[in-house]
Amino acid sequence: MKVNKTIKLYIGGKLTRTESGRSFAILDKNSKHYAHVCHGSRKDFRNAVDLSISAAVNWSSQTAFLRSQILYRMAEMMESKKSEFCNVLTETTNLTKEKAEIEVKEAINHLVYYSGFCDKYQQILGAVNPVSGPFHNFTTAESVGVVTLVTDNTTKFSKLIEDISVIILSGNSVVTLIMPKLAAILAPLSEVLATSDLPSGVVNLISCYYEELSSFVSTHREVRSVSFQRSSIEEYAKFKSEGMDNMKRVVGNFDDKKDSLFKISQFLEYKTVWHPIGI
Amino acid sequence: MPAIKIKVPGGGKISFSHYPIDMVGTIERAGSFAKRSIKNSSKLYALNLAVSMTDLTTLEGADTPGKVKQLCGKAITPVPPCLFNEINTTGKNIHIPHTAAICVYPELVKVASHALKGSGVEIAAVSTAFPSGQLDLKLKLKDVQACIRDGATEIDMVIDRGAFLRGDYQKVFDEIVAVKDICEDRAHLKVILETGELKTFDKVRLASMMAMEAGADFIKTSTGKVPSAANMPVTLVMLQAIWDFYQEKGIKIGMKPAGGIRTAKQAIAYLVMVNETLGEDWMNPKMFRFGASSLLNDLLRQIFKQHTGQYYYKDIFSMD
Amino acid sequence: MALKKKTTKKKTTKVKTKSKSKTVSKKTTSSSKNSKSNKEFKLSKDFTYDPAPESTSVVKIKKRNELFINGKFVKPISGKYFKTYNPATGSVLCELAEANDKDIDYAAKSARRAYENVWSKCSGQDRAKYLFRIARILQERAREFAVLETIDGGKPIKESRDIDIPLAAAHFFYYAGWADKLDYAFPGNKVKPVGVCGQIIPWNFPLLMAAWKLAPALAAGNTVVLKPAETTSLTALLLAEVLQEAELPDGVVNIVTGAGKTGVAIVSHKEFDKLAFTGSTDVGKIIAKNAPLKKLTLELGGKSANIIYEDAAIDQAIEGVINGIYFNQGHVCCAGSRVLVEESIQKEFLKKLQKRMSTLRVGNPLDKNTDIGAINSKEQLETIKRLVKTGQKEGGAFFSPEIDLPTKGYFHKPCYFEGVSSSSTVARVEIFGPVATIMSFRTPDEAIAKANDTPYGLAAGIWSEKGSKVHKTAGQLKAGVIWANTYNKFDPCSPFGGYFESGFGREGGRHGLFPYVELS
Question: Between A107 and which of A158, B106, C211, C218 could a Cys-Cys bridge form, CB atoms 3.0 to 4.6 Å apart?
Answer without folding.
Answer: A158
